[in-house]
Amino acid sequence: MSATATTPKSATSVRPEAPRRLSFAKVLLLVAGALVLLSVVSALVSAKDQNAFYSITSSGQVTAALSMAVPIGLAGLGGLWAERAGVVNIGLEGMMILGTFFGAWAGYQTSPWVGVLAGVLGGAVGGLVHAIATVTFGVDHIISGVAINILALGATSYLAKRWFGPLEEEGGSPRQSPKVDDIQDFTVPGLSDWLADVEKHHWFFVSDVAGLLGGLVTDISALTLVAIALVVGTFFVLWKTSFGLRLRSCGENPTAAESLGVNVYLYKYAAVVTSGALAGLGGVFLAMVRSHIYNEGQTGGRGFIGLAAMLFGNWRPGGLAMGAGLFGYTDALQLRNGGPTVHALLLLAAIGLALFAAWKVYRKAMVAAAVNAGVAAVLVVWYALTDTVPNELVSATPYLVTLLVMALAAQRLRMPKAIGRPYRKGQGK
Known about the structure:
1% strand; two-stranded antiparallel ribbon; mainly alpha; 2 strands; disordered N terminus; single chain
């Protein structure tokens, strides 16, 4: 019998296709479709609740959403740096807490920008501790991250009582700092006023787009611009430089990277310390832009939501930014107008799930299509039979949206291959 006849068919089988990346044109089509969907939903709910109609696409809503998205995005960006180098960092919440505390403390003592630097350094110290524990001593990444979250909360609570407690005359207390000076905001002159005029006409689609764009050019904090630059810079550094290639190789195959002369420990340390610094900057944003004070518990789990945004973005900066924007938008919805506005979100979610179900039918995934269609039907009935959403669900909106989005996005995730795995120096020699 010839060798050709005995060759197993599996040897020539085709490898499974990797998830396709969306082209720029497809991204633009998706954005345009989302804008149309928002306009349609706004038109449908306007007769039922005028206030909810205008808050969905208003410039104020977008400005609030952007301010909510920035700390989530910075935390997620920190997670991206660490996990691309193979280190799981669920200590982002604790590093954000360190950023809020030290940023507000230094900002009150000196100036806002010194506070920004202090908050970044505070988060970086948390990242350094995590790197020492996981990279040098091989501690389980999850255990180390949980420990950092607990230690950061305990340390800042103690220091707040010691440093802010005696400052009652200046507005301090054992749980909060005195007020910190504002960081400069920017508004594009002319364009902001023109978009506001168009928004007031309430034209279908046109006014919606004007409201969305107006929120992006009105009262934008300087730290927001810094955060946008960091997202772009992260993409350039990690995907367009040799440094980024070496760092990502440490998260894919550190043994092979070391065999090629890469100092794996050094790159892991750099990644995790940078991760902490970015999370600390997210904490600074919460303390010095959102509220102008340090307040105990003000991070509110945003470090964990940042991790969800990173997963939603499939460990890439662009997708992460989209995820942070989505979570920030829903967070702003529930804070600005409460139940009636979140009630309008039910219809938006129902239409989105119905479209997703149609896509699953096209892909012949009938079970997934049926599940999504069923959930969409439940949301439509809920919307039709009620006028608002209970306050208990309103406050949980960002977390529910996080769970829903992660359930839908989980099928396309591709994490770094060596993430969370123990590595000891010398394995590649």
